[in-house]
Specification:
The chain is α+β, with helices and mostly antiparallel strands and 526 residues long. The chain has 3 domains: 222 residues, P-loop containing nucleotide triphosphate hydrolases (Rossmann fold), CATH 3.40.50; 99 residues, Rossmann fold, CATH 3.40.50.300; 135 residues, Alpha-Beta Plaits, CATH 3.30.70.3280. The chain is 28% helix and 30% strand. The protein contains 15 helices and 31 strands. It has an 8-stranded antiparallel β-sheet with strand order 27-24-26-25-29-30-28-31. A 7-stranded mixed β-sheet has the order 2-3-1-4-5-11-6, with helices on both faces. A hairpin with a 7-residue loop joins strand 7 and strand 8. Helix 12 packs across helix 13. About 4% of the residues have low confidence. The chain binds guanosine-5',3'-tetraphosphate (G4P). The site of guanosine-5',3'-tetraphosphate (G4P) has 19 residues, from helix 2.
């Protein structure tokens, strides 16, 4: 197969959801369809979300096992499908934001009863920023939930997606009879038999087909006809170009646990989902079909063996062909590196790869050279854009608790921040270090890892902060004036950028009022 064909057959995506909506279940069902796993229950890496902190530490120790499930690849209808796993726990949302920079599209899972939840809003916002094509899967139709039209309204309002339903539920909860596949005029009938669910698919001409009345109770058939008439009047028909531009989102309904609606989702996905998209660098746009290899690190997975501080850097290949044992330029360090055992992740198993193509994710063993966002090329000095840091939600001072281990602590903090575990800000006036995280769990993870991997001890002290804001202004003099005036509230992030550390929403508003020329951003890339 030629280079171009290899690119054309790749579909790299992530499944995202609020915890408990059914992301793990859906992932697993897709892997079953793709033949990547043989039994349900194989994808357990996400289960940390439900466990208590102490269990989390235990699971951390076993992370070596779960590395393989960070990327799951399988072949389906001659296509190479790569699913990137995202952490289920909300405290690891930042990890998910970064993973979204390495995919070409996403599937968003929504619980029919809960509707759009907070975590989903934030994740979809990141997709919108990047015009990532989004497919929505409304899950758990075997349970009572919100009315379909109400849900579509909610998705449009809260997720700001232009929806286009491609299937429509028939009944719900105990009355759930299946879905009508609007896209292909098919009736998918749901019949639960204890734990075994069967799905019968009937081709119908249109909704006036009497076959419908033979299989569905009169009330539900009437409701289906009425509702589909309404939605066909209200929503535009499916437009693949609009979907690929991130401007329209197809919606499917189903029940992942019952395997219902999953195959339709996968079949439609492989037909419409984008092939590897061009990448943006500070210098220029990089096309997947370019001869020369380029890629960037979007995730670093550490602690595979705590004694050796082994890490795996996950690299998304953006252009050209990656080859084992070939010299590549690590642009930030300006050093040539070669990799003798790059890993790919097919069928949830790790294996050494000799070559990899745009859209693929490879794992490179790393002894601490890489940082999130690093670029690898064949020599060109490119810097991939679009891996922003977001303002953390929680902040604490980090303090050395063992004066004899100051060096170890500094090194540990440095490396953990490179991995993207949390963000570090240094106050300009006091030089004190502040750790910012998305959730409280990370503080414990950092403390635990500093002790177990670096032999250093830290403690935290409270700091009252509302947001970290990155700054910009058309007039550099205005920015300088702001930074000088607000010196007491200024910090420096890990990249050396100036950050305004606002103590409260009120203080931030005052700063905005006093300095209308300065723009305040909640993310590091603008
Ligand atoms: P997540 O990764 O998004 O956090 O969700 P996950 O797949 O773990 O699913 C959360 C819970 O919802 C699980 O139940 C799962 O079995 C259930 N679930 C997933 N899809 C469906 C569905 O279509 N219908 C119904 N009724 N439930 C569904 P759990 O009891 O929390 O966990 P488990 O013991 O079943 O693993």
């Amino acid at each position: 197969m030629g280079f171009k064909e290899e690119i054309e057959r790749r579909r790299t995506f992530a499944i995202i959801s609020h915890p408990d909506a059914g992301k793990t279940t859906l992932t697993e069902k897709l892997l079953l369809f793709g033949g990547a796993i043989q039994v349900a229950g194989a994808v357990k890496s996400n289960k940390i979300k439900k466990t208590a902190t102490s269990d989390f530490m235990e699971i951390e120790k076993q992370r070596g096992i779960s590395v393989a499930t960070s990327v799951m690849g399988f072949e389906y209808r001659d296509l190479q499908v790569n699913i990137l796993d995202t952490p289920g726990h909300k405290d690891f949302a930042e990890d998910t934001y970064r993973t979204l920079t390495a995919v070409d599209s996403v599937i968003v899972v929504i619980d029919v009863a809960k509707g759009v939840e907070a975590q989903t809003e934030k994740l979809v916002e990141v997709c919108r920023m990047r015009d990532t094509p989004v497919i929505v899967f409304v899950n758990k139709l075997d349970r009572d939930g919100k009315d379909g039209v109400e849900l579509l309204d909610e998705i449009e309002l809260k997720l700001k997606l232009n929806v286009c339903p491609l299937s429509w539920p028939i009944g719900m909860g105990p009355d759930f009879k299946g879905v009508y596949n609007i896209y292909e005029s098919k009736l998918n009938l749901f019949s639960p038999h204890g734990k075994q669910t069967t799905e019968e698919v009937l081709q119908i001409t249109d909704l006036s087909d009497p076959l419908l009345d033979e299989h569905i109770p009169e009330r539900l058939a009437r409701e289906l006809r009425e509702e589909v008439e309404i939605i066909e009047g209200v929503y535009p028909s499916f437009d693949k170009e609009a979907y690929l531009a991130g401007k329209q989102s197809p919606v499917f309904f189903g029940s992942a646990i019952n395997n219902f609606g999953v195959k339709e989702l996968l079949d439609c996905f492989v037909e419409i989902a984008p092939t590897p998209r061009p990448g943006n660098t500070e210098e220029r746009e990089v096309l997947p079909t370019e001869d020369k290899f380029s890629g960037f690190v979007f995730k670093i997975h550490a602690n595979i063996d705590p004694k050796h501080r082994d890490r795996i850097a996950f690299v998304r290949i953006c252009s050209g062909m990656f080859e084992r044992n070939k010299n590549y330029l690590h642009v930030r360090a300006d050093k040539k590196l070669k990799f003798s055992n790059p890993t790919s992740f097919m069928a949830a198993k790790k294996s050494i790869v000799d070559v990899a193509y745009p859209g693929d994710i490879i794992g490179l063993y790393d002894s601490g050279k890489f940082k999130i966002g690093d670029t690898l090329t064949e020599g060109e000095k490119l810097h991939f854009k679009g891996i922003p840091s977001f303002s953390p939600e929680q902040f604490r001072y980090i303090v050395n608790a063992d004066p004899l281990k100051a060096k170890q602590l500094a090194k540990g903090i440095d490396q953990l921040m490179d991995e993207g575990v949390a963000q570090l800000f240094q106050q300009v006036m006091t030089n004190r270090k502040i750790i910012g995280t998305v959730g409280a769990l990370q503080f414990e993870v950092i403390q635990y890892r500093l002790e177990h991997e670096y032999g250093a001890k830290c403690k935290y002290e409270p700091v009252s902060l509302h947001k970290a804001c990155w700054l910009s202004a058309e007039d550099p003099a205005k920015l300088k004036e702001f930074i000088t005036k607000k010196k007491r509230h200024m910090g420096i992030d890990k990249q050396g950028k100036d950050v305004f550390l606002a103590e409260s929403a009120w203080m931030l508003n005052m700063a905005k009022q006093d300095f209308p020329e300065v723009e305040f951003h909640f993310k590091s890339e603008m």
